[in-house]
Amino acid sequence: MSGRFITFEGIDGAGKSTQIAAAVALIAGRGLQVVQTREPGGTPLAEKLRELALHEPMHLETEALVMFAARREHLAAKIEPALSAGQWVVCDRFSDATYAYQVGGRGLAADKFAVLEQWVHPHRQPDLTFLFDLDPAIAAARMAASRSEGDRFEREQADFFARVRAAYLARARDCSARFHVLDATRTPDDIQREVEEVIRERFFA
């Protein structure tokens, strides 16, 4: 079986991390090689760019360029080699996050995002994207209970996350063939069962 590319998306506090680990375990349990990674980041250089993006104030367009620079390196050094070798890749965020956070949240022009996406990965989109949909107020309460001071995105106000959520849902409608939207208010066990069921039906049925 050839490699598959699965991404997990959602606003901060939506509960992706536990489900990513469960998905990786499910795939590995099928005897398949699987790479778990994240964006921005995933390689030494991309992780350095991640630190800049998350903690250094910058112009909106600079921010988008840094995100896509990290993505280009991530694709070249990790994602594409793994997929070419028949490995599966499970990634915490990809370009959908840039659309949601920079276009939806920050107001980057959608046509500029489209140019960057076409330039950086014209022939690569995830085979399956899970979107963890959650009211920003619930996400904020979760984060307040579990984290100290966050990065500059996590410190944004509620209206920012409302825009991010709306952009995610719009993206899911536009790319419905690869998106599966999950109600992230449910229990982790319920969500895990749904994630595993979708992966089985999509790839192992």
Automatic annotation (TrEMBL):
Q: Which UniProt keywords apply?
A: ATP-binding, Kinase, Nucleotide biosynthesis, Nucleotide-binding, Transferase
Which ranges carry the Thymidylate kinase-like domain? Answer: 8-195
Q: Name one Pfam family in it.
A: Thymidylate_kin
Is Glycoprotein tagged as a keyword?
Answer: no
| This enzyme's EC code(s) | 2.7.4.9
Return the InterPro entries for the record. Answer: P-loop_NTPase, Thymidylate_kin-like_dom, Thymidylate_kinase
Q: Name one GO molecular function term.
A: dTMP kinase activity
Catalytic reaction annotation: dTMP + ATP = dTDP + ADP
Query: Which residues bind ATP per the record?
Result: 10-17
Protein role: Phosphorylation of dTMP to form dTDP in both de novo and salvage pathways of dTTP synthesis.
Family the entry assigns: Belongs to the thymidylate kinase family.
Q: What is this protein called?
A: Thymidylate kinase
Annotated source species: Niveibacterium microcysteis
